[in-house]
Amino acid sequence: MIGTRWTALAALLGACGMSVGTDADTGPGVRDTVVTVDEGSFPCITELSPVRRFYVGNLLGDLEATLDVARAPQGRAYPPGSLLQLVPFEAMVKREAGFSPETDDWEFFFLAAGPEGARIEDRGTTGVRNAFNGDCAACHTAAAGDWDWVCEQDHGCVDLPLTEEAIREVQAADPRCP
Ligand code: HEC
Question: Rounded to whole angstroms, how far apart are CA atoms 15 and 71?
Fold first, then answer.
């Protein structure tokens, strides 16, 4: 059932132009494909795939590869196209290899989300700030290495001033969701 749901989502994301690249963007060349990210790349957060507290997707259509890493007990590098969100207004996307050696190819996004969709307020590798004026990369770099910049609760990052309950509320209140 879950498989069907995600196949449908992958088709939907493809149709919205979320995975833009070569014709064979799910084929063997996927790792070399440029990861194009625009406002259409960020759907309703709960339509992504839940993993513990956060949600994942893959803009190149390789959701299974992203889920494999997200679910692995040990940290590993996320595949290109991986989209991670904890709250509707922040996202990190693993860009193509070589995009940003400084952030191991992660690009950070600060979003505004409304019923009509997401607007990109700021994006980049370093210097992007969240609603608490915290620098995404400066915080997430504490989890660089084994955990590939993914903080969760115990990968060395400074905690966010949000309880799990508050995170769940913010996720459920995403204005983009039907
Ligand atoms: C003060 C440090 C800090 C700042 C600044 C920060 N984050 Fe995080 N981020 C965290 C922590 C800690 C978690 C894990 C929270 C949890 O699971 O309860 C997290 C979780 C996430 C997640 C889910 C995956 C993960 O790493 O656990 C994403 C995606 C994310 N943040 C993106 C961003 C973006 C984009 C920005 C900037 C717009 C940002 N963060 C700014 C600390 C920070």
Answer: 27
Q: For residue 27, how far is its CA from the centre of ligand 1 (angstroms)?
A: 31
Residues 6 or more apart from 2 whose CB is under 8 A from it? none
Sign of CA dihedral 6, 83, 165, 76: positive
Q: Nearest residue CA, atom 19 of ligand 1?
A: 151
Q: Is 56 in the pocket of ligand 1 (CB under 6 A)?
A: no
Whether the CB-CB separation of 143 and 149 falls below 8 Å is answered with: yes
Residues 6+ apart with CB under 8 A from 114: 175, 176
Ligand 1 touching residue 85 (CB < 6 A): yes
Q: Which of 70, 42, 58 is nearest to 151 (CA)?
A: 70
Q: What is the pLDDT of residues 45-68, one digit of tens each?
A: 999 999 999 999 999 999 999 999
Q: What is the pLDDT of residues 109-139, one digit of tens each?
A: 999 989 999 999 999 999 999 999 999 999 9
Determine if ligand 1 sits within 6 Å of the CB of residue 150: yes
